Automatic annotation (TrEMBL):
UniProt feature, compositional bias: Polar residues: 606-615, 623-634
Coiled coil regions in record: none
GO cellular component, one term: membrane
Protein name: Cysteine-rich receptor-like protein kinase 3
Organism: Phaseolus coccineus
InterPro entries reported for this sequence: CR_Ser/Thr_kinase, GNK2, GNK2_sf, Kinase-like_dom_sf, Prot_kinase_dom, Protein_kinase_ATP_BS, Ser/Thr_kinase_AS
Amino acid sequence: MSLASFLLVFLFCRFFPALADPRATELAVMCSNTTAPVLQRQAFLTNFYDAMEALTDLITSQRYALVVKGTTQNETVYAFGECMKDLSKPDCDVCFAQCKTRVHRCSPFPRGTNGGMFFFDGCYLRYDGYNFFNESLSPRDRTICGTEDFRGNWSVFKANTVELVRNLSIEAPKNEGFSVGYVRRSNVTIYGLAQCWKFVNSSSCQNCLAEAITRIGSCSPKGEVKALNAGCYLRYATHNFYNSSNNNPPQEHRGHNNYAIIVAASSASLAFLLIVATVIFLVWTNLLKRSRERRQVGVLLNTVIKSKLNMPYEILEKATDYFSDSNKVGEGGSGSVFKGVLPDGTTVAVKRLTFNTSQWADHFFNEVNLISGIRHKNLVKLLGCSITGPESLLVYEFVPNHSLYYHLSGRRNSQQLTWEVRHKIIFGTAEGLAYLHEESQRIIHRDIKLGNILVDENFTPKIADFGLARLFPEDKSHLSTAICGTLGYMAPEYVVLGKLTEKADVYSFGVLIMEIISGKKSKSFVQNSYSILHRVWSLYGSNKLCDIVDTMLEGNYPAEEACKLLKIGLLCAQASAELRPAMSVVVKMINNNHEITQPTQPPFLNGSSAESSKSILPGESFQPRSYTQSSEDSMTESLIHHKWVTI
Ligand SMILES: *[C@@H]1O[C@H](CO)[C@@H](O)[C@H](O)[C@H]1NC(C)=O
Ligand SMILES: *[C@@H]1O[C@H](CO)[C@@H](O)[C@H](O)[C@H]1NC(C)=O
Ligand SMILES: *[C@@H]1O[C@H](CO)[C@@H](O)[C@H](O)[C@H]1NC(C)=O
Ligand SMILES: *[C@@H]1O[C@H](CO)[C@@H](O)[C@H](O)[C@H]1NC(C)=O
Ligand SMILES: *[C@@H]1O[C@H](CO)[C@@H](O)[C@H](O)[C@H]1NC(C)=O
Ligand SMILES: *[C@@H]1O[C@H](CO)[C@@H](O)[C@H](O)[C@H]1NC(C)=O
Ligand SMILES: *[C@@H]1O[C@H](CO)[C@@H](O)[C@H](O)[C@H]1NC(C)=O
Ligand SMILES: *[C@@H]1O[C@H](CO)[C@@H](O)[C@H](O)[C@H]1NC(C)=O
């Protein structure tokens, strides 16, 4: 008898497998209707960026984050993010990456909005200009009803739902703010999940869920409801949507089980039948699984295995000494990088991707195929990949001499960065980008920054990670937007409207020029609430551009050439994308084969025009404000009065 019930439980588990779904669908974005006072907007924005960065790091390591940046009133940013507790870590990363792509919808720039709540099916993010960590309810709380009416016995549905949500709201406060379960009775099953955010204590958790329950009745007769509160989340549906394997110990929210009664009353022959049925079922599901896997790795599997680009996982694992820490050479947004030596003696860099790509294998391989065809002296070569192993790996040529970030940090070996070396790096990077934009497949890098410019023994620059954004499908998920793009380098139209063209790379390149010449990272300026762009622009205004040149050079540089490069940097970082030159033109300018025009527009918009652009909505075209003040003196004066909003 116990065998029969064991088999029954087993069958149940097979029938309700966990879902392989990162739940990265947007539910609601609710922007605050207050704005930061104009004078403090600049500082608020800086703190906002810092907070978002800190949030990302913490979520990757502990799945939730509570961050406060800044100390002064009206400038401090409070931020919070958390994943649903049943999500696996990769799913959490995917959901949060998606969530971050929405942040620009309530961004402090240019509208000055100083708060927003971002609800996803699997995660939550909120930031605000005040301490909301004791708030479990807010006037912006919302209920989202499903689209389909429940069809079936309505009174049973109602009774089951009431029992489920009541039990969830009792369980969750006792169970670290999280509970999942289902009620199955009279042929109607309802699945539910309740979670209170990490900062909510158990009594507030109870209140919050109770309030959610009073609202969900408004959704009848829909079969699915999601209640979104400042302090908690509650969802029920007629289908299973949570990952039950994470629920420990599994909660048996089960009502009377008719099947169990039948089985209990049955004879040994039924047990025998069940055994036979199970064997058949197992064989059948195994066959199904295999054929599904074959389909998943793609129609391409044969092509992949035969391709020279495919490197067996085992070989890469050995090459990097099983991804040992001593071989780790870097950690990026999209994954860790390890140094490895292939059996034939070639040294390579192996990138372990954070994101699970098994669903996208076809697409992934096609893109690797395409990117690996791109060869240029200033681009890091992609040698191959591994997609048939347990995780996806990318194999690159190994560039021995670190990134520019390394060379400009802590002033290591900075005497090596002579003027000639810096010029060579700027020129080479420009050539590499021009090739990417105009001669290859029109690839936009999206994440040009010091850390992505590697240098070899001779200080020849090589751009890393290009095309990475293409590896992730764009249609549904805008993951690429989340992976790529480092605040401080991102063009305004990209941050604000998510509008992406090659000119976004040109902007980042402009920032890069200034960093290389000044020897300072753009971040080091942020502390004084001035960006490197402000500094260079204001020096340009007072005809003292060369003041920014790195003092480590001790004056050993041609002043005219340095000013020329800085001016090109300003041209590249103009607020309007149309005004920025194409990379091929930049190459010509550096080569003295093209006239260098005067930068006409500061790389930031002023506070009052930011006010008046309140009506810009995502999707609408971005009309850059033209620069109205003509005299350079008044320009500098406004800067001193902090009237600028920068990116
Ligand atoms: C469910 O959670 C477990 C534990 O984190 C994880 O190993 C598994 O991959 C998850 N399953 C799905 C489908 O997300
Ligand atoms: C902001 O929204 C709240 C709630 O929706 C409302 O009560 C308040 O009047 C609004 N404030 C402004 C300035 O619009
Ligand atoms: C913060 O902003 C409010 C409203 O704009 C203002 O009344 C207050 O003086 C500001 N506080 C500080 C310290 O600037
Ligand atoms: C829980 O938090 C709320 C709001 O922050 C607070 O009013 C209440 O005293 C707290 N309760 C306990 C038991 O700490
Ligand atoms: C939360 O704390 C702030 C001060 O930290 C206080 O002004 C506010 O009333 C508190 N809100 C609640 C709901 O306890
Ligand atoms: C719904 O189910 C209840 C309990 O099982 C039963 O008493 C009732 O007659 C059913 N109603 C309909 C319309 O089937
Ligand atoms: C249970 O529901 C299914 C479909 O919802 C229906 O086909 C079946 O007849 C129902 N069984 C009973 C015993 O009500
Ligand atoms: C819900 O809670 C009640 C009372 O604690 C209990 O009798 C019932 O079995 C629970 N239901 C489920 C589905 O766990």
